[in-house]
Design a protein that fits this description.
428 residues, alpha/beta, Lyase, Ornithine Decarboxylase, Chain A, domain 1, TIM Barrel, 2 domains, nine-stranded mixed sheet, eight-stranded parallel β-barrel, 21 strands, 31% helix, globular, binds ligand LLP
Length: 428
């Protein structure tokens, strides 16, 4: 579902005019649609209705307290990767007993905090980590629930920086060593083996790597259930979204005619692909979606400051930079750019859309054919709800942008724009 569309010549989020938001709260600004987030969560939940399952929303995608609260109220669990994310979940009213804790480098302080809060499972990435959790739990007089993350050595066919399930990636326990890891961990006194986890990568646009991974790892899950009585199998996150709206609005006949790799992956197709094998296991199935839930639920608004005509090309300089949205610079990520004021005719020109930062990589699009939006106008970078604000920084001593949540015709600031004083508040 998309809640960003033109009404009366202006781009809206649900029933709120984004031009009004830009005028009232300034730019750059992140704007999220509450109903899109809920719709995505509910669609995923419904697609899995026939099996015992739990959605563990991947907090790293968008960790604003209001986003977490919305999902907590729907009954979502949370996949966290730091003590900080656990703190956020608790502050937002989330249930630690529904939290899984991922990551290759958990510290003592984080393990202690998670044990105190009683999380559902540590998703452990090495035997060394299991041994350390055993020590810490023992000191605290607790038994830590753990699952190993297995690295299934499956090619996710995504950008190399967000591929995680190949043997050369740092994640998980090698498929060849995983049974021995369970065997040794079963001897540890202060840990309890309760599950198995995997996550092969992010922004997967085809269902086949998911099916390949599930088929490869399911026999292992069955064996671990029989041997150690594990209760869950987490198949991770990674469901990709459509960053190019031309694909999203394409006609069904067009969609059906495409090769699998070229068409958007729907959640129904994903569920139909993985469910048959998972059903046989009789285990609780966990999913850790991040981008699927929030990616298309957010845009970043930015204003055009200058138009600069060079001999090679035209540059539109906007007031957001790579510090606000780093995905184009880091992963060559594509974020569709649309003017908030609907273009009257076809006045596309070739341009680079660039930010104010002192880096050549500070661009949102290069050599793009886009409507010739004027200086002073506001544009929206679509599909910025995931890994947008959470990856923003203060580089060039730029304040972090404001975040706004829209619900119907209401818009609320859910995080204030940083002030200049905020920028130096922690410095001594
Ligand atoms: N579970 C684990 C263990 C993960 O490492 C991740 C993402 C997820 C779940 C959620 O994946 P998702 O459903 O969102 O694909 N910053 C990058 C993406 C990094 C993903 C890291 N791990 C980007 O902007 O594309």
């Amino acid at each position: 579902m998309h809640s960003f569309e033109y009404k009366n010549g202006s781009l809206h989020c649900e029933d709120v005019n984004l031009q009004d938001i830009a005028e009232q709260y300034g730019t750059p600004a992140y704007v999220y649609s509450a109903n899109t987030i809920l719709d995505h969560y509910r669609r995923l939940d419904a697609a899995l209705a026939e099996i015992d399952h739990c959605v563990e929303y991947a907090v790293k995608a968008n960790s604003n307290l209001s986003v977490l609260r919305l999902l907590a109220e729907e009954g979502s669990g949370f996949d966290i990767v730091s003590g900080g994310e656990l703190f956020r979940v608790i502050k937002a009213g989330g249930d630690p007993k529904k939290c899984t804790f991922a990551g290759v480098g958990k510290t003592r302080a984080e393990i202690e905090y998670a044990l105190e809060q009683g999380i559902y499972s540590f998703n452990v990435e090495s035997e060394e980590e299991a041994a350390f959790i055993n020590v810490v739990a023992g000191e605290m007089g607790k038994v830590a629930p753990i699952a190993f993350r297995v690295n299934p050595n499956v090619d996710a066919k995504t950008h190399k920086y967000i591929s995680t399930g190949k043997s050369e990636n740092k994640f998980g326990v090698d498929f060849a060593y995983i049974e021995a890891a369970y065997e040794r961990a079963s001897q540890l006194e202060n840990v309890k083996l309760i599950g198995l986890q995997m996550h092969i990568g992010s922004q997967l646009t085809s269902v086949s790597p998911f099916i390949e991974a599930v088929e490869k790892v399911s026999p292992l899950a069955a064996k671990l259930k029989a041997t150690y009585g594990i209760e869950f199998f987490s198949i991770g996150g990674g469901v990709g979204i459509v960053y190019d709206p031309a694909l999203e609005s394409a006609k069904p006949e067009w969609w059906a005619a495409q090769e699998e790799e070229q068409r958007p992956l729907t959640i129904e197709e994903y569920a139909a692909g993985v469910l048959p094998k998972l059903k046989e296991l009789g285990l609780k199935i966990l999913l850790e979606p991040g981008r699927y839930i929030v990616g298309n639920a957010g845009v970043m608004l930015t204003q055009c400051l200058y138009e600069k005509k060079g001999s090679a090309k035209t540059f539109k300089v906007v007031d957001a930079g790579m510090n606000d949205l780093i995905r184009p610079a880091l992963y060559e990520g594509h974020h569709e750019i649309v003017p908030v004021a609907q273009p009257a005719g076809d006045d596309n020109i070739k341009m680079d859309v660039v930010g104010p930062i002192c880096e050549t990589g500070d661009f949102f699009m290069q050599n793009a054919e886009l409507p010739n939006f004027p200086v002073g106008s506001v544009i929206a970078l679509l599909s910025s709800g995931a890994y947008g604000f959470t990856m923003a920084s203060n580089y060039n001593t730029r304040p972090m942008p404001v975040e706004i949540m829209v619900d119907g015709d209401q818009a609320k600031v859910i995080r204030k724009r940083q002030s200049l004083d905020d920028l130096i508040a922690a410095e001594l």
